[in-house]
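Support request, priority: normal
Reporter: lab tech (M.K.)
Component: structure prediction queue

Hi team, I submitted a job for 4-diphosphocytidyl-2-C-methyl-D-erythritol kinase from Microvirga subterranea yesterday, and the status page still shows it as pending. I've pasted the exact input below so you can check whether something in the sequence is tripping the parser. The sequence length should be 290 residues. Please let me know if I need to resubmit or if it's stuck on your end.
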Amino acid sequence: MPQPLATRAPAKINLTLHVLGRRADGYHDLESLVAFAGTGDDLRLEPGPGLALKIAGPTAAFAGNDADNLVLKAARLLAERVEGLKVGELHLMKRLPVAAGIGGGSSDAAAALRLLARLNNIPLSHPAVREAARLTGADVPVCLEPRARMMRGVGEALDPVLGLPRLFCVLVNPRVPVETPAVFRELGLQAGQVLSGAPHPAMEGASPASLLDRLKVARNDLEAPACRVQPVIREVIGLVEATEGCRLARMSGSGATVFGLYGDCTASAEAAKRIRRERPGWWVKATSLR
Ligand code: C5P
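Reply from support: The job had stalled in the queue. We restarted it manually and it finished. Here are the results:
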């Protein structure tokens, strides 16, 4: 039986994000603990003569048109590198908010590469797949195999993080898009500038309690600049922090999505209910991270 050509494109959460400096090419060197949520978009591939993309779902209207969608960009980059690549029509069920700091577009693009690799019997470790991912965007490589990783460089250096306990969380987005370049600009580093700060804590083999301690001493360096670009993020952090049982509230990526961590799924479900009651227009999801 052939495997169905469908895959989940989970939300990517930056549990930590330390900016180490700005490179000569303008990109920033990062150190980030990335985990993946139980919630996400879904992508299906119907093999056919040409590449095409159909987008449906609650946030489809915000996903950009065919020309600038990262799914097609990734697929084209792979087709340029693999002669005779079998392709088809990609169907994206878009549920995640866009320009939200949870890697929706990057995860969709990585999902497209997974499906095309599967259709063509190419391993994900193949240099053409890796290169297509890297050229699509800084966050695409980490999304290729969605498992917890320490991400370094601009996102291309990936190390597995073993023994990360399952985390119960709430994701909250105020439905205000945030442009990543604007947040990095607001950080205000010069090209070539290197930051010296406290080292990123090790995350390997942490128990749930010690992981939380380590996460607390780490940070998201983009949180402050993102809050200046989009002040509502402060309000989101405050609201999540105020929910019962919240152990840590922090922005993911360049925002505006904020995650709250809880001790169990009852606490996260209750917190989600409360936030939905207080801000009915916001996107609120109780989920788990791994
Ligand atoms: O690679 P991607 O197109 O997703 O990056 C979007 C923008 O975010 C870049 O143009 C750059 O301004 C900024 N960025 C950065 N350093 C990174 C990742 C992204 O400066 N490590």
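The domain at 167-289 is CATH 3.30.70.890 (Alpha-Beta Plaits). The mean pLDDT is 95. Let us know if anything else looks off. Ticket resolved.
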